[in-house]
Amino acid sequence: MADAEAVSKADAATPPKYSITAKDVSLWYGDFQALKNLTINIQQGIITGLIGPSGCGKTTLLRSFNRINERYGNVTTKGEITILGKNIYDEDVSLSELRKSVGMVFQRPNPLPISVYENVSFGLRVHSDRGELSRAKRDELVEEALREVQLWDAVKDNLRQKATGLTLEQQQKLCIARLLPLKPRVILMDEPCSALDAEGIEKVENLISSLRQKYTVVIVTHNMAQARRATDECIYMLLGEIIEHAPTSDLFLNPQKKETEMYIEGRYG
Amino acid sequence: MADANRSQAGCYVVHSAEKGTAGPNFQRFPTMEEAVSAVAGQGSFNGHQQPSNLTKSNNSLVIAHLSNEQSDASQCRPRHRFYVDTHLLGSGGDGTERDPWPDVPTAAKHILSMAGDGKLNLRPNEQIVIESRKMFTATRLEKKKMRSQRIAKGVFFCMTLSLVIPVFAILGYLFVQAWPALSWDFVTLNPKRMGTEGGIWAPLVGTFFLVLMSLLMAAPVGVMAGVYLNEYAKDNWFNRIINLAVVNLAGVPSIVHALFGLGAFVLAAGMGKSLLAASLTLSVMTLPVIITSTREALAAVPKSFREACWNMGATKWQTIRTIVLPNSISGILTGVILQVARAAGETAPIIFTGAAIFLPVEDNGVGYWLPYTLKSEVMALSMHLYTLREQINNAPLAMQYGTAVVLIGLVLSVNSVSIALRVYLRSRKKW
Amino acid sequence: MASSNVADVRPNRKGSAFQSFRQLVDSVIDACEPIVEWMIRLSGWSAIVFVLAIFAFVFAQAFFVFENDSMIPSLWTKLDFVEFFTSVKWRPTSVVREQYGIVALLAGTGAVTVTSMLIAVPLGLGAAVYVSEFCHGKTKETLKIIIELLAAIPSVVWGFIGVAVLGPLIIDVTGSPIGVNVLNASLILALMSVPVIVSVGEDSLKAVPDSYREAAEALGASKWEVVYRVLFPAAKNGLLAAVLLGVGRAIGETMAVLMASGHKAQIPGGLLDPARTLTATIAAEMGEAPRGGDHYRVLFLIGIVLFALTFLVNLIADVVVKGIKGKQNG
Fold first, then answer.
1. Quick one: C136 and C27 in the same domain?
2. Where are the alpha helices (DSSP H) in B180-236?
3. Which residues of C fall within a CB distance of 8 Å from A68?
């Protein structure tokens, strides 16, 4: 037995400290370089915020973690992004499986134009064979997911209603809920609260906080206050480069770099 | 060692080496339960009481049901597959590829309880496979899905191809058949002896006049109607009816337009069967083409342009004249050109309203260039093709094909102008 | 951006004389504003006028005769409407007794339309999906242009292709004694109505917000799953409208079916039987029907039936399309 080779249980018991690591990542849209030699380590089980002025590449970075930015073609990526110990740019990586484990929540709530129930079970349908999951099992998973995002009470009586008819806040919760039956390890969020009103923001932020530990959450935000409230660590980006990566309180109270200080003080961006 | 009853049915074998090798990792157990327990580390397996590991080179455990004589599990059919992913935390999962268990002992525990429930029954020569799930790699299901995706794409591609091929096949075939007839004379000579000899000059000129006249009438009305619908019309019931009318005008069969032309222009207005009546009929028929495309072109001009202009105190008409129309002129032209192509090809609306089967026309002088008056009947290329094919018995085939090719060539070249304009337009669009 | 364009619009010419002349012209044009606006309004209303006029004139020709400056109902009292709608016998020139039953013609139109749609709908929607979802950039544009070319070929040329090319081919392949029949007309009609289905279908797929595709792909759906799990439900009304517009086109087509269908007034028993459609009947017989006679009027009546049929199909298509637009906005 080649014990050294073992993907050993001993290691898994003490979870790897870093959930996402990027090494020398550069990304081009055509000729435009959006990311420049990034290296970061994002910790498992905490909420990490990506902040920076518009066009600094934070959304691009986020979208390269589940390779959804490849949808547009014309994208070249160099370097290595490792999630849970596997380089996601390896040949044998299946995008479908990657996106199953690395879920994404978008800026504008985008529930599919089908029923609430179908929205939550969409991932299960895509990732299980016909007849593999019993009706009861699916119902159970849907309920579990909706409860986890505190949406169950609001929609339980009308699971067949069109998801596009919900309020924006409910829609965004639904967009989070539909990831959960797939047991993602990482949840990426691209300004998840920017389309919501103040009350909705508060509720969704609370929800995001409750996802801590169970999932690794990476969240892009424009809103400094939100970054302070809702994240454990923050990464400050500028012009496709990482300026500073520190625990949120340190970054905001005691920024090490001049650019960071100017940005959080609101001098630009 | 073996329970007498069970050994009749054979024995259970745990096999954790790479496929087909019966090495030290190959061990027999009297019952499946014991085999599974051994995997979980509760019985003796491989001489030590430890949970089995899945490693990179040795990524599956097999529990096979063999007869006592057999020592090779490689012929067994997998009846159940379970998956383990050591990257997972917690104890959840249902053992599928979608949702694997986090480690081998957990897997063994679940398998035992399933076996207890009678859900796992291995017949001889069947096996349970516990595989290690490789992070982010394609599952069996996904490979199946990728196959169906490829098939779907292939089918759609073939469907598209089945539309594209006829275009070229037909055009090529017509051209080849027409080749003997095509010459400069064919285009510039007037038809003789009911069209069986000579060329197609007079019908060509007739089509030109029909198109020109119908364009002169349809273009201004159509463009203004487009402007009305996009710029002036508020969203009320009346304008919705107008929209509906445009849609339906576009859908009225060409032969009904012909009846209308006959009733309204030829008879009621007293124009008789004439160039004028035929052109009017064509212009009514092609009006919706211009209206719709004008509207689309206007709608493509961003609202902010208009607002900027209104903010400077311009009236609605000034805004339209100085901002909206100049910015959408190419789109409007595209529609107008399409109308030309459509009018040039139509036959049905002109059959009873102005088209003649054959007219004697002068071969030189003014009569050569202007063979028709507004009140006279007119020959048209489309009608000429119909006549040659269906009304006259002895028209040479090559001349029929020749006429068809010239008509298609005319329509397609007009169309390609419109397409080129649109492509050019899109490339230089600034907003 | 917007303001710079506002400035761009007037040509930047130099010369004060010219400028003052332009100002004069501009002020004249501006003074015409009320007139121009009224012309625009009138043109806008013209579509309604024409639709009503089409119906009125065709109706008048079918049912009234003009005598001494007054309209006298004619066909209304004379025609046996029961026979018109229920008889298979279309014998307008019979010496013994003229019979005007349009059942055979309706059957011909029905047979040709249904068969052609059976071919055109799958091909059209398949091509729409392929062009819209599986192609990008140049390939997409080229395919769209080629399919547009299909739409540009005049109907008389299609008819000619049916008779001269497809007919002999059908005789060779099937051994049928005649090449112009339901199959021939349907194939030709299918190719003629496919471009409408493709372009409207593609438009309605394009109208599905990209965020739906992105959402589904981010959950791991493959392109094909996106198509049938998300796009088909989201665009189903648009796709239905595409089909209906194709049907409308097929019902109303005249010259191609006139030439390719075999033109025999009977209920076709199979694909290789000739048939005759409503449209072809009008086109073929109007020239020979004595003006004002019963035959002539019945042909106009058929025109009304056609008008009503296509009106209905287009109306449904329009309502279906408006239906989705309303929902998506709301």
1. no
2. 184-188, 201-227
3. 214, 217-218
